[in-house]
Each structure stands twice: as structure tokens, then as C-alpha cells.
Design a protein that fits this description.
By secondary structure, the chain is mainly alpha-helical. The protein is built from 5 helices and 2 strands; from the N terminus they run ααααββα.
Length: 89
């Protein structure tokens, strides 16, 4: 069995994942785990938050910095096309 499955006490619902995404997207600067929990209106367990943050980071939607998390995903189609056609130096 997957190691993650045996360690996780509670998997996040889609509603929880979307709420955490919105909190990080709407933050003006990097946001800490504690601040994310404060901004969520429902009682999200820290372990559930950690699983969600790990998921979002693995998908390339957020980045953890020394000061907290920042939203990095850009859905702009033109930017994606430019990146695909660019030359890495």
C-alpha cells in the first residue's frame, strides 16, 4: 500500500482543497500555515492542511518559501505558448 495512504488520518474534500487554494491565491504576500488555518472558516485539521499543501505543491500550483506559501500557477494561455516556444539559456 502507498506510504501516504497509511500515514494520512483524514483526506481533504474537494471543498477544502478549493478553499485553501482561494486563501493562498488571494494573499497579498506569502502566507504561513497558521494564517491559512485562521482564514479558513471551517475547522480544518493541520494534517489535512499539510496533505493539501503537499498536493498543491506537487502539482506546481504553489511554492513554499521561507516566509510561507505563494500561488505560482498562471492559467494565461499566451504565457503557456510563449514558454513552450522559448529557448532555455
Amino acid at each position: 500500500m502507498n506510504k501516504l495512504v497509511t500515514e494520512v488520518l483524514h483526506f481533504p474534500t474537494l471543498k477544502t482543497v478549493m478553499a485553501i487554494e482561494e486563501v493562498i491565491k488571494n494573499a497579498d504576500t506569502s502566507i504561513s500555515r497558521n494564517k491559512i488555518l485562521e482564514k479558513l472558516d471551517n475547522g480544518v485539521m493541520r494534517s489535512t492542511l499539510n496533505v493539501t499543501l503537499d498536493y498543491l505543491e506537487k502539482r506546481g500550483l504553489i511554492l513554499e518559501t521561507k516566509n510561507g506559501f505563494i500561488w505560482t500557477f498562471n492559467s494565461n494561455k499566451n504565457l503557456r505558448i510563449a514558454q513552450d516556444n522559448s529557448l532555455e539559456v
